[in-house]
């Protein structure tokens, strides 16, 4: 099932916050080193989005970059982290309109 894109400003801002929260939640978990690097970069992009203007095109661009980083994560080695990564990837897809 393809998630529907987020068009509403308030929904977009809430999704950005949720995206960041999922990625930040992995920070304290014991995860694979390579996965941690990709997730860390994705989290940095999401953190930038928290402070950035809520402009649809900017959010789409950063969400696309975030999704690309998360695509590099095969397995974190931690089931909870895997769930957070999956949820974050789904939100990134919604934010980028896919």
From TrEMBL:
Q: Which domain of life is it from?
A: Archaea
Family matches, as InterPro entries: DUF8152
> Which ranges carry the DUF8152 domain?
16-95
Protein name per UniProt: DUF8152 domain-containing protein
């Amino acid at each position: 099932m393809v998630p529907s894109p987020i068009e509403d400003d308030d929904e977009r801002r809430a999704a950005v916050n949720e995206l960041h929260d999922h990625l930040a939640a992995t920070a304290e978990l014991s995860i694979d080193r390579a996965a941690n690097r990709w997730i860390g970069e994705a989290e940095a992009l999401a953190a930038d989005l928290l402070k950035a203007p809520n402009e649809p095109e900017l959010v789409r661009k950063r969400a696309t970059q975030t999704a690309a980083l998360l695509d590099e994560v095969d397995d974190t080695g931690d089931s909870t982290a895997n769930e957070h990564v999956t949820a974050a990837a789904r939100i990134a897809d919604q934010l980028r309109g896919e």
